[in-house]
Design brief:
Helix 6 packs across helix 7 and helix 10 packs antiparallel against helix 18. The chain has one domain: Amino acid/polyamine transporter I. The chain is globular and about 65 Å long. 72% of the residues lie in helices and 1% in strands. It is mostly helical. The chain has a two-stranded antiparallel ribbon.
């Protein structure tokens, strides 16, 4: 393929050094590992002090900068909608002759598996129930366990997992894909800021941006691995009656680590793609079973009601001025925005990695609207069933939310074939975490290798191993409390990343228009498909 336009004085990849089977950018790799290891050691040496510090800092970030998070994420949604409607949406990632690498079905599956698949397993039952029963406040201080609380529980849950969340990933992913595939820049977070930083992109400011991306990704993946191990172990213990203690959690972590390591060795096409397709197939079967075995007519109506509630409440849930439900708003909405932003380097880079050949419009529609629709369907089925059980006094959920990791299994046990469906849920939890771990390791390996897409296998295995070891350390230090503290550290990284994303959005919009001026042959009618389209 012909060489695409590149920015002046921009390298195709940053200089690296080889040794011990690794190929790393010295500054980014050494600085990242040099910060990760002391943080983990500090947690081992003084766990209570480390937890208190991280939790306090998280509270400060969420309370002081809640407006920044809300305004920024609202702007990301508006930017994405603009890109769908504007003529620059016809620009193709990689150039007009570039064909997509993956079929649309596999592409959608990988988008979802790397993004929020595991979160939907964890929170699709727990979050609506939490909002309905006042587990940690209610939206707009609604009276708990009332019809109004049930409606707001669904609309708030969908708001947290809908367009706003995916807009964050879309901005990061699209900016990186365009910078790398169209401008020929290294596959790094810093490359998206080249229109703003200029030559400083390749100096220490750019190094700091990439290091921040590594830290947020490592601790985000490690925390999610540990939470996933707790949920899977909880499901195993719930089904078998043997409990879900540390030894069971370590067994789950070992399985996740082993399969994830195998998957990263196989690569994207033979590893992550196959697992993602399996995940989405099994998830579709589980959702269809719950729909048909449960109150089908009610759940079908719940989907339509949830869709209406989502658009009814989206504007007031997006508001940050004069909120009377400040505790709920900061503890849920602002928390989620910071959490998704902290995950944006990982998820955004992986989405970019698999999206070469798509148009800007196709990319945004797929990343923003398709997952939002799937989330609404999933939440309506599982969250709607959980709320119905709670409202009608069916099973343990009627008493409210107890152990979050058991909520899904408690709901499934009140339905036919509860044991079989719970086993399917355990398998889904594990495989969704595997796809998150191995896609994360590919991203970390690329960042630490100066922006290379193809990195040595030992390097990918190193990042998988490091993420698993951090998860083990967190679980050994006290389970949920340690994980919450580590999650707080990752969330706090959302503050600087928010500022980076805002600059990234400005740079992306200006560079897309510049590209269109430089390439007047960009199709102006319907998006033309290149030859070789799967």
């Amino acid at each position: 393929m012909r060489k695409l336009t590149r920015h002046a004085q921009a390298p195709e990849k940053l200089p690296t050094r080889q040794g011990l089977g690794l190929d790393v950018h010295p500054m980014v790799f050494v600085l990242s590992v040099g910060l990760i290891v002391p943080l983990v050691v500090l947690s081992l040496w003084a766990p209570e002090s480390a937890q208190a510090t991280m939790l306090s800092f998280r509270g400060w970030v969420l309370s002081r900068f809640h407006g920044l998070f809300m305004v920024s994420v609202n702007l990301f949604v508006l930017l994405c909608l603009m890109l769908v409607l504007l003529p620059i949406g016809r620009i193709r990632l990689g150039g007009e002759a570039c064909a997509p690498e993956f079929s649309r079905l596999s592409w959608f599956a990988m988008l979802f598996a790397a993004g929020m698949g595991i979160g939907l397993m964890f929170f699709s039952v727990a979050e609506p129930l939490a909002h309905y029963t006042d587990w940690f406040g209610t939206p707009f201080n609604a009276e708990p366990r009332t019809p109004a609380a049930a409606d707001l529980a669904m609309s708030a849950t969908l708001f947290h997992w809908g367009m706003h969340a995916w807009a964050i990933y879309a901005v990061m992913g699209l900016a990186l894909a365009f910078a790398s595939f169209n401008r020929g820049l290294p596959f790094l977070v810093r490359s998206t800021l080249h229109p703003v930083l200029g030559r400083f992109t390749w100096r220490w400011p750019g190094d700091l941006v990439d290091v921040l991306g590594v830290l947020a990704t490592v601790f985000g993946i490690a925390t999610s691995l540990a939470f996933g191990a707790q949920q899977a172990a909880g499901g195993i213990g719930f089904l078998s009656g043997i409990g879900h203690g540390f030894s069971i959690q370590m067994g789950v972590i070992a399985i996740i680590g082993a399969v994830a390591a195998t998957s990263v060795v196989l690569g994207v096409r033979r590893g992550i793609r196959v697992l993602s397709n399996f995940n989405m197939g099994l998830a579709a079967i589980l959702a269809l079973f719950v729909l048909l075995a449960g109150p089908t007519a009610y759940l079908a109506g719940e989907f339509l009601d949830s869709l209406g509630l989502y658009f009814r409440d989206i504007f007031r849930l997006s508001n940050w001025i004069g909120r009377e439900d400040r505790s709920w708003y900061e503890g849920w909405t602002v928390f989620y925005w910071a959490w998704w932003i902290s995950w944006s380097p990982f998820v955004g880079m992986f989405i970019a990695r698999i999206s070469r050949g798509r148009t800007v419009r196709e990319f945004v529609v797929a990343v923003l609207l398709v997952p939002t629709l799937v989330s609404i369907i999933w939440m309506s089925v599982f969250g709607g069933t959980a709320l119905l059980q709670a409202q009608n006094g069916i099973g343990p959920l009627s008493a409210g939310l107890g152990e979050v990791e058991l909520a899904m299994f408690q709901m499934l046990q009140q339905m036919p074939w509860g044991g079989i469906t719970s086993i399917c849920a355990v398998v889904l939890v594990i495989t969704f975490f595997i796809t998150s771990a191995d896609s994360g390791s590919l991203v970390l390996s690329s960042i630490s290798a100066g922006g290379q897409l193809r990195t040595p296998v030992p390097q990918r295995l190193l990042w998988v191993t490091l993420s698993v070891l951090i998860a083990v350390v967190m679980l050994s230090l006290g389970g949920s409390e340690s994980l919450t503290a580590m999650q707080s550290g990752a969330i706090s990284s959302g503050l600087p990343l928010t500022m980076i994303l805002v600059l990234m959005g400005v740079a992306l919009l200006s560079d897309l228009y510049r590209w269109r001026r430089e390439h007047p042959g960009t199709p102006r009618g319907r998006d033309a498909e290149p030859s070789g389209q799967p």
